[in-house]
Design a protein that fits this description.
This protein is α/β, with parallel strands linked by helices. The protein folds into five domains: 6-51; 57-108, Glutaredoxin, CATH 3.40.30; 116-324, NADH-ubiquinone oxidoreductase 51kDa subunit (Rossmann fold), CATH 3.40.50.11540; 335-413, Ubiquitin-like (UB roll), CATH 3.10.20; 418-500, NADH-ubiquinone oxidoreductase 51kDa subunit, iron-sulphur binding domain (de novo design (two linked rop proteins), Up-down Bundle). 43% of the residues lie in helices and 13% in strands. A six-stranded mixed beta sheet has the order 5-11-10-14-12-13, with helices on both faces. Strands 2-1-3-4 form a four-stranded mixed beta sheet, with helices on one face. A four-stranded parallel beta sheet has the order 8-7-6-9, sandwiched between helices. Helix 7 crosses helix 13 (306-318), helix 13 (306-318) packs across helix 14 (320-326) and helix 18 (438-457) packs antiparallel against helix 19. The longest helix has 23 residues, at 197-219. It is globular and about 70 Å long. The termini are far apart. The relative contact order is 0.12. The structure holds flavin mononucleotide (FMN) and iron/sulfur cluster. Iron/sulfur cluster is lined by residues 266, 283-284, 433-437, 440-441, 477-479, 481-482.
Length: 504
Amino acid sequence: MQKPNANREKIIELLEHAGGVTEESVREVHRQTGIAEADIWGTGLFYTLLREPGKRIRLCDGLTCQMFGADSLATELAAAGKSVERVSCLGQCDLAPASLDEDMELVTYAKHQTAISPPNDLAMNLAGDVDLNYSALAKVREMNPEDVIAVLEASGLQGRGGAGFPAHFKWTSVRQQAETERYVICNADEAEPGTFKDRELILRQSHKMLEGLAIAAFVIESNQIYIYIRGEYTNEYRAIERALEESKDALKDFEFTIVKGHGAYICGEETALLESLEGKRGMPRLKPPYPTESGFRGKPSLIHNVETIACVPAIIHRGGEWFRKLGKTEAGSKLYCISGHVVAPGVYELPLGVSLDELADAAGGYVGNPIAFSPGGASSGFLPISERALPLDYKHLADAGSMLGSAGVVVINDTVDMAKAAAWQLEFFERESCGQCAPCRIGTQYIRRQVDQFIQLGDPVSLELTGDVGWEMEEGSICGLGMVAAKPLESARKHFPDAFKTRD
Ligand SMILES: Cc1cc2nc3c(=O)[nH]c(=O)nc-3n(C[C@H](O)[C@H](O)[C@H](O)COP(=O)(O)O)c2cc1C
Ligand code: SF4
């Protein structure tokens, strides 16, 4: 393994401060760090926010923004003489169509505000009180770390970042390592189309996240905490800075570092995130070893999603059993994002395992005649509306050939062409593939091109080989992106065969 290099870790930040990747900035960063210029070019160009310095509007191309007219908006803006770049999902699906202005501030064209679940007695309650005393952390300080992990195990908390892996296993694994230099890392790189729950959690309840991180650090005997937040979340970055300032006494034993992402969705994959933290291109690592054994700087690292970690203070206060019972079919409450064709898109905290109908009810009901939904971000593909009663949890959705993933639910009504919906999702994966495995690099391009050709020519022969290519991608990719990138097409063809028949 390469030795950690403190200079290397700085290069992305230095390029950002220099305004992006230019001949001058690369030379300057080379002078400051001693890293070869070719290496700095290669790293900087990987990140879209560094790649094209200069002011422009960044208009979201995510599924929901496309459903709500991103294409015509782009034409209007261009006609008005604006410089517009089309970018992957901005995490504002509830406010679609959305863009960032030239100063990276959010602009939305939606006629409503985002909705959040009203105060209730669930675990993290987005609308609940803020505890500036950090009393769960104080309680943990009086406990044996093994007992804290036992409470976590009793809670049944599964990682909310997508895979649903039981949290307590990771805490135990880090504690079992002989190495004492250890890290806690918060994954706030949320960038999956349909997903914006971490955004609301950070904006409204940063302290819950910070307290959960401090508890985790205490238990794994570390004081080093990193928060990796996507670069487009400007307000959220400020919210964390504010919260750290407000809680500096309670958190004085811990060293927090906030690191900005620079426009690469793949950096949400935990090992790509580690590469990025180490100042490299965000390319996923082969696993094992898992980050709990060899993570940041090759040291044991506990990586959690924002929502997972924000559940921890309430679990400590009210006990594992209490949290477990909050769920309907699986443990705990869950932040569901819902956007698309519902009355009040937003984030709703509900028992884990509610159905689409129950979630849509919380969001004011459906708009028009719903035909499909994507239950957990682009990676989950599409399900037909006939599955509206299925529990939205890890197990039932996996059994149905889909996944809960990031719980970014998008509802689609009969005004949308399902072939187009698939094409929009495929474009996302093509753009965001890191390119290191051939099946993913080539397969994402091939499948998207074939679907575009089908939409243009109306001849299903264009799709003939896409199933085989999708299989190759699933089997031959290093990380989850390549494994699921063909899912939008595969599921759309399975559940909506009429949308893929010969067209005039
Ligand atoms: C392509 C890809 C993108 C991902 N993006 C995110 C993300 O933005 N945020 C996140 O928490 N997890 C993301 N994950 C999952 C992480 O790899 C990892 O499982 C998670 O951060 C672990 O935290 P948890 O145990 O709390 O879920 C992604 C995974 C893949 C394969
Ligand atoms: S599957 Fe795709 S995104 Fe993942 S490592 Fe391979 S090329 Fe990169």
